[in-house]
Write a structure and sequence with these properties.
The relative contact order is 0.12. The protein is globular. The longest helix has 17 residues. By secondary structure, it is an alpha/beta fold. The chain contains nine helices and six strands. Helix content is 50%, strand content 16%. The strands form two sheets. A three-stranded mixed beta sheet has the order 1-2-3, sandwiched between helices. It has a three-stranded parallel beta sheet with strand order 4-5-6, sandwiched between helices.
Length: 195
């Protein structure tokens, strides 16, 4: 739906190591500890992060895709982004429901830590939805989405790296919103018929 904010931070600061994502480092805690260290080493504070968050634009076609899906079914975005980053982009997407994590800043605006809602929270969210007798469709682009995708009633990748699709050839892969929306709509219809 939106570009990875850390890529924007890397571009703004000129620090290439901030381009690392879960596509590069599957262990989320290791990735975030690396990011925290880099920010600290370079004196990057909340002002820079907030500036980047406000500059992020949804990907072309994302709003239309999301609107289409909201007309078809209930939509919840499960994200490893942070509440402090998500607001501006969610406004541009029509304020969809999003569950994400929190950043912890000190009084001077220095990023000191992060707080996950729950370890493996995306998978636990799917389990929670299913415990309410909901059918769940899940999609993502990287290793941090894999347990959620595998737990869902229907799972797929959207614009993933080649490495993860090679490891999981059983999962459908989409690169454009129209066929992705078509597949999700069909999956919703099939799951509704199976109830």
């Amino acid at each position: 739906m939106i570009p990875e904010i850390w890529l924007g931070v890397a571009e703004t600061t000129g620090i290439d190591d901030l381009r690392l994502t879960t596509r590069d480092i599957p262990d989320y805690d290791e990735l975030m500890r690396t990011r925290l260290r880099i920010l600290d080493d370079n004196g990057i504070d909340s002002r820079v992060l907030t500036e980047v968050a406000h500059s992020i634009q949804p990907l072309p076609g994302a709003r239309e895709f999301l609107d289409r899906m909201r007309r078809t079914t209930q939509v919840v975005i499960l994200s490893d982004t942070f509440r402090q980053f998500a607001g501006p982009a969610m406004a541009q997407l029509g304020y969809p429901t999003i569950f994400c994590n929190d950043l912890i800043f000190d009084d001077a605006g220095k990023l000191t830590d992060y707080k996950l809602r729950q370890q493996d929270g995306k998978r636990h969210a799917v389990l929670g939805f299913r415990s309410m007798n909901l059918k769940v469709l899940a999609a993502g682009d990287s290793y941090n989405d894999l347990s959620m995708i595998l737990e869902a009633d229907y799972g797929a990748f959207f614009r993933p790296p080649q490495s993860i699709t090679t490891e999981h050839p059983e999962l459908p892969v989409f690169t454009e919103y129209q066929p992705f929306g078509d597949a999700l709509t069909q999956a919703v219809q099939e799951l509704d018929r199976s109830n």
